[in-house]
Amino acid sequence: MKLAKKFAFALTVCSLVAGGQVQGAEHYMVDGSHTSVVFGVSHMGYSYTYGRFNKLSGAYVLDRANPAASQFQLTIDAASIDSNDQKRDEHLKGPDFFNVKQFPVISFQSTRVTPQQTDNKTIYQVTGNLTIHGVTRPVTLPVQKLDEGNGPAGNYRTGFLCQTNLKRSEFGMTNMIPMIGDEVAITVSFEGLRQSAPAGSSSAPKEGSGTASAPAAQPAGSGSAEKQQGGGSGAR
């Protein structure tokens, strides 16, 4: 399990570094301690049950000069599902639902980014491949840029919000429909820490900040990127 996660993350970093060395590109590692993946699903039409995934890693590239060249990637540990009920969580991890032993990773890798400016909001329509339960399907996700700036530890960060609905049946998860709803509401809010530029790179500065950057090869599933750049667990 750990080997598969490390391998997936290494591929992510390599692909983003290889694809992102262009003028104006800024590289970010997802800060897991300030990232949430939350879901909600109907229970018999009586109520909605909510849960989250607690372990993840990711990276993204923002290109100010050419926003369409931006990239986003996220990898989630399916076994980290948490619905605030241990017995239910074990059921969700089993063959009736996520089957985490066979399909330990949920992942998203962008293939196209289309920026939009709406009501003073920057929204990236991010098209990519979403893999859940071993099934990969193309999806387009609205990713809204919330804000950016220096955090308490002085590290530059950007933040985003994505809210969408998915049908679990489209990913081969059909058990207990309609008792347990087919449509699942998803909210992902994430922050990323900008990485220092590698030797020999020549990235253009962003608006109102210092030099751009490239990702360091380490996961941020527990806020490790913050610590790597001088922050601590208290730098929230």
Overall description:
By secondary structure, the chain is mainly β. It has a single domain (2-8, 25-228), classed as Lipocalin, CATH 2.40.128.110. It has helices spanning 2-20, 86-93, 224-228; strands at residues 25-30, 36-43, 47-53, 56-63, 71-77, 81-82, 105-118, 121-132, 135-150, 156-167, 180-194. An eight-stranded antiparallel beta barrel has the order 1-4-5-7-8-9-10-11. Strand 8 and strand 9 (135-150) form a beta hairpin.
CATH class, please? Answer: Mainly Beta
Distance between the termini: 29 Å
Derived structural class: mainly beta
- CATH-level-4 superfamily name: Lipid/polyisoprenoid-binding, YceI-like
The tally of structural domains comes to 1
Q: What is the CATH architecture term?
A: Beta Barrel
Estimate the mean pLDDT confidence: 81
